[in-house]
Design brief:
CATH superfamily of the largest domain: HUPs
CATH class of the largest domain: Alpha Beta
Strand order of the largest sheet: 3-2-1-4-5
Distance between the termini: 44 Å
Largest sheet: 5 strands, parallel
Number of domains: 3
Order of helices and strands: HEHEHEHHEHHHHHEHHHHHHHHHEE
CATH topology of the largest domain: Rossmann fold
CATH architecture of the largest domain: 3-Layer(aba) Sandwich
Shape: globular
Helix content: 40-55%
Length: 382
C-alpha cells in the first residue's frame, strides 16, 4: 500500500517545480504530504523546492481542529523524521465569507467533461489554487477518494453472512454489534439486511468499492480540468489509482473497515511517517455548517439558476426545486445536500458549456470540392 502511494507521489514530485499536498490533519492528505516531503529529501539539491503542505482554515482562527493536527504532522516531519526539515513547508490558506460554498459558481466554473465535484466549493478551491500558483506550485496532490476506499463502513457484513463457517458467523455477530453501538441502533436490522443481501447474491464489498472508486476517479478528472484551466496546476489523486485501490482491497473487509478501528490499513502503511496524534485521531472536519451559511448567503442567486438549462429540458420542476432550496436554507429536516448539489453542479456545467467559444470544423457545400479526407457536405458548429 505504501509503495503504491509513494510511487504516485514520487511521480508528482519529479516535475522539476514546486509541488504541494493538501494537509488537513487527517490521515489521507497528511500521509501524502509527508510522502512528498520524503520524496524531496533524496532530490532536494536537484529540485530546489520544498514540498508544500497547505492547510485551509477559517480566517481569524489560529488554533484548534484541523490546524492543530496539521501543525503536529509538520512539526513531526521537521524534528522526528531525519532529513525532512528542509523539504516540507507549511502554508496556511485562510478563508472568509467570500469563500463560502455556492459562492461564484456561475463565475468561476469552466467547461469540463462532466459536472465537477468541487463545483459548490469552487470559491474555496480557487482561493487555495491561487495561493499555490502564486508560490510557483505546478502540481497538487490530494487525498480525494481516501474515505471511499479506506473509511469504516459495514458493507462487508453480507460477505460474512454468505460464508457459512462458525468463524465468519461469529465475526458477523461481533461486527454487527459494533456497528450498532456506533450508530446507536438495534443490531437486528443490520444482521437481517446482511443476510438478505447475501441470499440475493449481491456483489461483494470489494466489487462495490471498485465501482465506487471508478466513479470517484472519473469525476475527479473534471476537478483536474478546473485546476489546469484556472491556474495551470496539475491535480494528482493517488487514492483513485488502480494500484492503490487493489493494494487496499487485498485486505479483507473485516480488517480494512472494522467498527471502531479508523483506517487501519493506511495507519499501518504510513507507520513512522505520522505522529501518534494524527494516527490516533478519531474526528473529522465537518463543513456542514459552512454549507448552510453559504446556502443562506447565496440563496437568491441559486434560486435564479433554477429557471435554466435543466428546466428548459424538462429535467427539473423549477417551482419544486426552488421551494426545496428555500426550505433547505431554513434548516428544514429531511433535505440533504445530496439532493441539491448535483442539480446545481449540472446546471452550472451546462451553462459553462454553452458560454465557451464554439468549436468549429470545416466542411464543404455540394458545389465545392471537399478537403482531403473529408466526407462532410456542410459547415457545422458544435
Amino acid at each position: 500500500m505504501q509503495g503504491a502511494v509513494a510511487e504516485i507521489a514520487a511521480g508528482a514530485s519529479s516535475t522539476g517545480h514546486a509541488v504541494a499536498a493538501d494537509c488537513s490533519g487527517g490521515m489521507d492528505s497528511t500521509s501524502l504530504a509527508m510522502l512528498l516531503a520524503q520524496c524531496r529529501t533524496a532530490r532536494a539539491e536537484d529540485l530546489g523546492h520544498a514540498a508544500v503542505a497547505v492547510t485551509v482554515h477559517p480566517a481569524g482562527t489560529t488554533a484548534g481542529g484541523d490546524l492543530d493536527y496539521a501543525r503536529a504532522a509538520v512539526a513531526y516531519a521537521r524534528t522526528g523524521l531525519a532529513g525532512l526539515a528542509r523539504t516540507v513547508e507549511h502554508l496556511l490558506c485562510p478563508l472568509d465569507d467570500r469563500h463560502l460554498p455556492y459562492g461564484r459558481i456561475g463565475e468561476l466554473v469552466p467547461a469540463t467533461d462532466e459536472p465537477a465535484p468541487s463545483t459548490v466549493a469552487i470559491a474555496r478551491f480557487d482561493a487555495e489554487l491561487a495561493l499555490l500558483a502564486g508560490r510557483g506550485v505546478g502540481d497538487l496532490v490530494t487525498g480525494d477518494g481516501g474515505d471511499t476506499l479506506l473509511g469504516p463502513q459495514p458493507g462487508y457484513l453480507p460477505d460474512l453472512a454468505a460464508t457459512r463457517t462458525l468463524h465468519s458467523q461469529a465475526l458477523l455477530l461481533r461486527h454487527a454489534l459494533g456497528w450498532a453501538r456506533l450508530r446507536r441502533t438495534a443490531v437486528w436490522p443490520l444482521l437481517a439486511g446482511a443476510r438478505a443481501a447475501a441470499a440475493r447474491g449481491e456483489p461483494g464489498e470489494a466489487a462495490r468499492t471498485r465501482t465506487a472508486m471508478r466513479v470517484v476517479a472519473r469525476t475527479a478528472r473534471a476537478d483536474a480540468q478546473i485546476t489546469e484551466q484556472l491556474h495551470g496546476i496539475t491535480l494528482h489523486n493517488p487514492f483513485t489509482d488502480a494500484s492503490v485501490v487493489e493494494a487496499a482491497l487485498a485486505v479483507p473487509g473485516p480488517l480494512r473497515a472494522a467498527p471502531g478501528d479508523y483506517k487501519p490499513v493506511l495507519r499501518q502503511a504510513m507507520a513512522g511517517l505520522l505522529p501518534e496524534t494524527v494516527t490516533a485521531r478519531r474526528t473529522k472536519g465537518d463543513f456542514t455548517p459552512d454549507q448552510y451559511r453559504g446556502l443562506r448567503t447565496h440563496l437568491q442567486a441559486l434560486t435564479g439558476l433554477v429557471d435554466g438549462e435543466l428546466a428548459a429540458r424538462g429535467l427539473i420542476d423549477p417551482a419544486h426545486y426552488r421551494a426545496l432550496l428555500t426550505r433547505a436554507a431554513a434548516g428544514a429536516p429531511g433535505i440533504g445536500f445530496h439532493q441539491l448539489n448535483p442539480v446545481l453542479a449540472t446546471e452550472v456545467w451546462l451553462r459553462a458549456l454553452h458560454q465557451r467559444p464554439a468549436a468549429a470544423r470545416w466542411t464543404t457545400t455540394d458545389e465545392d470540392p471537399p478537403p482531403a479526407g473529408s466526407t462532410n457536405s456542410r459547415w457545422e458548429v458544435f
